[in-house]
Design a protein that fits this description.
globular; alpha/beta; 6-stranded mixed sheet; 39% helix; binds ligand F0G; 428 residues; 4-stranded parallel sheet
């Protein structure tokens, strides 16, 4: 381990300085990974984190920068662009645990990343990527997105006073995400194509125009997203659960979780590694299909799903995610749109709420409980990646199309301003 942070190519091992702005390895085109000087060991590190959590001063108020030894140790407090982010709740729900098939409520906890400043986990990676973009002298920043990354990029770029450019699939971005992206001032391009075409275009356009690309192929994004796991492990007293489930699209987050567990283990923060469960939507499940054949080949599909956040057919962080699943003895599975929407309705009705893609994690957990892969006494943390308000249209459409065997909310009733009408509505 070097005494400074470095960027290292995952494929050929080429080394670049921490401030290098190459989007991929200049030698072989592989994805870059950050390595940091070895931090102090477990017990000491745990107490540093705990002290900062108690103090909540300056950048320590961020649930990302509190773990800076494992994220970007060289960044100074005045360089950090923070909202602040993180500090998301770990919650339980009797109704959700029961629906997923657990006997006890505490067997299923949800880590709600929708509580971040722009309403999704993307803020954790974005605070680091924008901080680094500033440090390395970026003129402008860009991303391709299904909506959440663009909302987050737009907000953090605005805070850093950097111009931002986003590439999103025309007609396939949920209303809340689009509103955020536009309101925070990004130059928004509606690309006639899906996310995969947006990313290909964003990669070549940003290279040609000298703009920094901040998709999760950017290693600084991955460093920030690792803190979802550091924070949830700390909330559990560093006593790891048996499983951690998450929705998977472009596979940046699956990769970040794998790396976080590797780091936590190496630093002696945990002594046992949970199994990862990555869940895709059935209509956008190239990674799940490949897992079924022991990752023998890289699969691509033409994606379609109601969970627009994970409507991705050619995930970019493939090799890193394969490593994450293999190292954790993990599972990749897929769930139908109907299962996603049912899980979402249960999570929403429990007063927790999330966007459709997020509910895939809980739907996937139910599937694995039913198949016996998740066993009787085991504990699972499912990550809810985005807020309910990201996609209000999905709520309206689901409850309007009432199906007898599905959980449904009370439909709104229009009334005259009369008590008698209120009574009638209550009886109905
Ligand atoms: N959940 C939500 C709410 C997301 O927005 C995304 C990805 C994922 C899960 C999957 O994470 O791509 O790292 O596997 N959204 C990206 C975006 C693609 O542009 O906002 P992943």
């Amino acid at each position: 381990m070097k005494s400074v942070s470095m960027q290292v190519c995952e494929d050929c091992g080429a080394e670049l300085g921490e401030l290098s702005c190459e989007p991929v390895c200049p030698v072989c085109g592989g994805l870059l990974d950050l390595t940091h000087p070895a931090p102090s060991r477990g017990a000491e590190l745990r107490s540093v984190f705990a002290d900062r959590r108690r103090a909540m001063r300056g950048v320590d108020a961020s649930g990302v920068w509190r773990y800076r030894e494992l994220v970007l140790p060289s960044a100074t407090s005045d360089e950090v662009v923070t909202h602040p982010e993180g500090n998301t709740p770990l919650m339980d729900s009797r109704a959700v645990a029961r629906w997923a098939g657990f006997a006890r409520t505490d067997q299923l906890l949800v880590k709600h990343e929708g509580h971040n400043p722009t309403g999704s986990f993307k803020d954790r990676g974005m605070t680091v990527a924008i901080t680094q973009a500033k440090r390395s002298g970026a003129r402008a920043v860009a991303c391709a997105s299904t909506g959440n990354t663009s909302a987050s990029l737009a907000a953090y770029a605005a805070r850093a006073e950097l111009p931002s450019l986003v590439f999103v699939p025309q007609g396939k971005v949920a209303a809340g995400k689009l509103a955020q992206t536009i309101a925070h001032g990004a130059r928004t391009l509606f690309v006639r194509g899906g996310f995969d075409e947006c990313l290909a275009l964003a990669r070549s356009a940003s290279a040609e125009l000298g703009i920094q690309l901040l998709n999760s192929v950017n290693p600084f994004r991955i460093e920030g997203q690792k803190t979802i796991l550091f924070e949830l492990l700390e909330q559990l007293g560093w006593d790891a659960p048996d499983w951690i489930a998450l929705p998977a699209g472009n596979l940046g987050n699956t990769s970040a979780f794998g790396k976080a567990l590797r780091d936590a283990r190496a630093a002696g923060l945990i002594d046992r590694v949970p199994r990862l469960c990555a869940v895709q939507a059935e209509g956008a499940a190239p990674f799940a299909r490949s897992f079924d054949h022991a990752f023998a080949e890289r699969v691509t599909v033409k994606p379609e799903t109601i969970a627009t956040a994970i409507r991705i057919g050619a995930p970019a962080s493939w090799n890193r995610a394969v490593r994450a699943i293999r190292e954790t003895n993990g599972i990749v599975t897929s769930v139908s749109d109907a299962e996603i929407l049912e899980a979402k309705a249960v999570i929403d009705a429990a007063g927790i709420g999330c966007e459709p893609a997020s509910a895939a994690s809980v739907a996937g957990v139910r599937k694995l409980v039913r198949s016996g892969a998740i066993r009787g006494g085991e504990q699972v943390v499912a990550v809810l990646t985005g807020h309910l308000l990201k996609d209000p249209d999905a709520v309206v459409a689901y409850h309007a199309a009432r199906q007898p065997d599905r959980p449904h909310a009370n439909p709104p009733i229009e009334i005259e301003p009369l008590v008698s009408e209120v009574e009638r509505a209550m009886r109905g």
